Amino acid sequence: MLTPQLEVQLIAVIIAAACALPGVFLVLRRMAMLSDAISHTVLLGIVLAYLISNSLASPLLFVGTAAMGVITVWLVEMVSGSRLVREDAAIGLVFPALFSIAVLLISRYTGNIHLDTDSVLLGELAFAPFDRIELLGIDLPRALIFGGGALILNAILLALFYKELKLATFDPALAATLGFSPAIIHYGLMTSVSLTAVTAFDAVGSILVIALMVAPPATAYLLTDRLPRMIGLSVAIGVAAALSGYWVARWFDVSIAGAMATMAGIGFGAAWLFAPQRGIVAQALQHRSRRERFAVQMLTLHLLNHESTGDAAIECHPRHLIEELRWPPAFANAIVRRAEQSGLVRRQGDVLCLTEQGRALARDL
Amino acid sequence: MAFAVEIEDLTVAYGDKPALWDVDLRVPQGVLMAIVGPNGAGKTTLLKATLGLIKPAAGSVRIHGQPYEQQRRLVAYVPQRSSVDWDFPTTVLDVVMMGRYGQLGWLRRPGRAEREAALAALEQVQMADFAHRQIGQLSGGQQQRVFLARALAQNAEVYFMDEPFQGVDAVTERAIIHVLRKLRAAGKTVVVVHHDLQTVPEYFDQVALINVRRIAAGPVREVFTEANLRATYGGRVALLGANGSAGAVTTPTPAPGD
């Protein structure tokens, strides 16, 4: 039997993986904010299904929430399709409206059940092991079973429709002309997002659902330029955020969901700064190296133009670079050194001369 | 004469403003046809409505004699380059293989046959060396050739291309025109939205002049006249040709994004 500690971690890992899979396509379709909307409006689906069935374990809950996710997307598209407001505003209008209806219904009709608005935001991951049901004779936490179900469902859908998802995400017009309805794929994806959100929602709350759907894929996007790798990395990053978040929460005695979301954010921040090619630091280095390479080329061209003229003694003096080319002294020295090291330029007394190699480079420019 | 494309009474409206007004257009099989007209004339709209990407207010489209919906397999579409996100995490080869997805249908995965078809198509546009590059590393002209290769991989009968020559380098322009001529030689039909009037007589057999309505359509020699161009573009056309037909024409109509 697993300890409650291990169970909580397992639930977190499974939910992180389940969220990362559809999250990849949300991020690539630039629809990350829809996960925000859906993860909130599923609450209305839960409440309505509860009011009809009077049970929090009814299968109607899944039907209701999946439908509510799709309705959310449809409403957003209808409002933004009217061209009276843009899509970001449409999302900001639709989901608070649906979410607040859910909050009103909860406070009016369901005061005495386990549906409170605090747990909606951050969930109760620490309590998840206490809510158990039996599956095939094994006593397991409900969140583990539902999270596992969502993960398996998402993995199967991805395996079956990977080609279609990729095509409709990259080029919806081509998808349409090839007979793959982008609308069906779009709403299929949104249904999967809704179902994942509702299973994750109970355990980890809506903020973490968003964090786990958006942050790991956005991080992976910075680290690779291949879709299969992006999917794998997203899952790995989500799992890493879940585990590290759990231990941070234990260590500092803070909310588990909050710590997991924070770790997902820190992971993104690290990739944003230090990703090998797209990170801010790498880009700054590339920019510097390009600037230096260009400056070396400029130097060789300058020397070529002046090497056999009468003013060579002035024009080809390193001081001239500082005075006339307006290079800062440190930069000019670095460029001369770099040119010398690459064998393009050598010193003759005070004056810089091109080597054969340097002359060839300058002539090719 | 057998027609590859028969468009009848095609009308598209955005709100109550017609973008295309009752356009009839017949494209014979085995020709290269240019669609020309000023900016905002509805050239792209005509292509998109023909392919069902925009819902027309009225009209019908037949491909090789049958309604378009039943003939999707015969049709390849090259959208404007700017219509997709070139930072998408995928390779050149993968994008070209997407051209084969229509034949595969739902659920079936691309395999070696699709890979080889895609490589052959890349070979035709001289992009085989780039097969494993990330698409974001390509120049504009290379992107256009990848899109062309993707359409070639579809092995269609009728090709619709939206501004394939827009902003490409000379190498790409020659590569595209070479491919178009090979397609024609193989009996395929190509319909191209085109913006450079000067090259119409050299590149194309047929031309359709569109400005919301169809002004004229037919063989370049008969239709590409000063009178028709004036009717299409208003007074903004300068004809340099002496006999008023098939001469070099200039309308510097800078398209947005040039």
From TrEMBL, chain B:
InterPro entries: AAA+_ATPase, ABC_transporter-like_ATP-bd, ABC_transporter-like_CS, Metal_Ion_Import_ABC, P-loop_NTPase. Residues 5-237 form the ABC transporter domain. Coiled coil: none annotated. It comes from the Bacteria. GO terms for molecular function: ATP binding; ATP hydrolysis activity. Keywords: ATP-binding, Nucleotide-binding, Transport. CDD domains: ABC_Metallic_Cations. Belongs to the ABC transporter superfamily. This is Manganese ABC transporter ATP-binding protein. It comes from Chloroflexus islandicus.
